[in-house]
Amino acid sequence: MSGIAERLTAVVGEEQVVTDPQIMEGYSHDEAEWAPYGRPAAVVRPRDTADVSATVALCAELGVPVVARGAGTGLSGAANAVDGWVVVSFERMNRVLEVDLVQQTATVQPGVVNDDLRERVARDGLWYPPDPASAPWSTIGGNVATNAGGLCCVKYGVTRDYVLGMEAVMGSGEVVRLGRVTAKGVTGYDLCGLMVGSEGTLGMVTEVTLRMRPLRTGVEHTVVGYFGSLTDAGRAVAAVSAAGVVPSAMELIDRFCLQAVDAWKNMGLSAEGEVLLLARSDQPGAAGEEEAERILSCFRDEGAVYAVRSTDQEEAEALFEARRLAYPALERLGPLLTEDMCVPKAKLPEMLGRIEAAAERFDTRIGNIAHAGDGNLHPLFIVPAGDEAAKKRAQEAFEVIVDEALALGGTVTGEHGVGLLKMRGAAREMGPDVVRMHHAVKNALDPRGIFNPGKVFAWPVCALRPPAGGGRSRTRTGQMPNGAA
Predict the structure, then answer these.
(1) Quick check: 327 and 370 in contact, CB under 8 A?
(2) d(CA 84, CA 283)
(3) Which of 152, 170, 240, 287 is the 20 to 30 A CA-CA neighbour of 83?
């Protein structure tokens, strides 16, 4: 046992500290393909905030970096360990602490699984909208760290829009309360909002108070459209937005992804066209009927080869399930690297065309899924296992697509986070003055530099090594990555 592990055992207890190399391997990285990672000195599985505080205080004293981990479903490498670091896994802090029906809030520990929270509050007639594709596995703490999105976010917003307050452990182990539990509050800087999306670089969140919405009870109206090309589908999305319609979901999945789902689940979805658009309206009654008809009209006006309103709820649910299954279906074909850029909706057709051009230029197979309604694209790079030349081409295409998104006024990440994979693009997007502002905030809140250094923006990077075998093994059968949204 290393010296740091012995010290940790003394302050939090032997049952909370893991040092077995084989067990620690499963905690050492998230699902980001090709993101480097190292071997931690120890994994701490805290029972409560006091354990987290004691761990951070000791690491601050010794100058040992710490990285927070939820379910490990991230796609940027933000939760990856480095040799000699301490990983703090929040799997045991998984309780819903309170559901307040008057305030319509829920207070939870970070290890609560997204879908478990949604199921729990539904019993009280409440709904938590952020729904990443990994919702059956990803945790609220991880969702907060990456400001996760999901299918509903085109209408209902992302994680940050629902975080009211939090408890967090900061740079010397001190425990602070940020934000509020009231419906309104403008006291001081929004330090709570600053923590959301910080990817573990500023502190460790140990409790979160989330805003809920009333549970939706009506029937959603689903519109299905097949298109002959990605750009045609992109124009249809732009037309829906220009018509003033805000669907409750609008998802894109191309034929290559549909074929992968069909090969896995035999759903028969890939025969109608090159690209499938799925849209939903959750407006009640006649308003929902009218909104669905307007979406359908936009699809047809923009050249859909087949477009229809689905009248079968089971069929509609199966189509959206196919969208969620696209990532694991492609992952069965080989190592899979996923992009996550967001562009203005008017630029969506052009961005989809540029992705196709990059695939041709670099001779790289790229599948496409997207939260098309808010311009959030997820190109998926499929590389044959062990083909180093193909891997290099895919990585080059990845960087070119990042630059293309920025050229169109977009951002390098819509929901997966920067982590290790997007630091070059993030630095270019922010510019040197804004990067300096990030450094200033980091230095102020983490003066000892122990929280996840070397991630998100340029910072001294510790000894990382490439993942063994060039791929990822899942810690749970069928588990989907956090950002596969």
Answers:
(1) no
(2) 53
(3) 170
Backbone angles phi, psi at 250, to 5 degrees: -150, 110
Report which DSSP code applies to 471.
Answer: S
The owner of tokens 């967090």 is 168
One DSSP character per residue, 338-357 reads E--EE--GGGHHHHHHHHHH
Tokens of 51: 């354990």
Structure tokens at 440: 């200033």
pTM: 0.91
Cα torsion 162, 208, 478, 369 to 10°: value is 30
In DSSP notation, 153-210 reads HHHH--GGGGEEEEEEE-TTS-EEEEE-SSS----S--HHHHHTT-TTSS-EEEEEEE
- Of the candidates 297, 256, 301, 257, which has an alpha carbon nearest to the alpha carbon of residue 279? 297
Sheet containing 96-100: which strands, arranged edge to edge?
Answer: 96-100, 105-108, 204-211, 163-169, 175-179
CA–CA distance, 337 with 332 (Å, rounded to integer): 13
Q: Are 159 and 134 in contact (CB under 8 A)?
A: no
Instruction: State which amino acid sits at residue 314.
Output: E
- Assign residue 104 a region (left: φ > 0; alpha: ψ between -120 and 50; beta: otherwise): left
- Is residue 119 within 8 A of residue 466, CB to CB? The reply is no
Is the CB of residue 402 less than 8 Å from the CB of residue 341?
yes
Residue in the structure block whose two tokens are 């956090």? 482
Sign of the Cα pseudo-torsion (166, 133, 328, 330, in order): negative
Band (pLDDT 50/70/90 cuts) for residue 458 is low
The two three-digit tokens of residue 19, written as one number: 């040092």
204 and 52 in contact (C-beta within 8 Å)?
Answer: yes
In 239-274, beta strands by DSSP E: 249-254
Enumerate residues 6+ apart whose C-beta is below 8 A from 279. Answer: 222, 223, 225, 240, 247, 249, 250, 251, 292, 295, 299, 373
Among candidate residues 353, 397, 405, the one with its CA nearest the CA of residue 376: 405
Contact (Cβ atoms closer than 8 angstroms) between residue 485 and residue 205 = no
- Kindly tell me if the per-residue pLDDT of 224 is higher than 50: yes
Q: Are 464 and 129 in contact (CB under 8 A)?
A: no
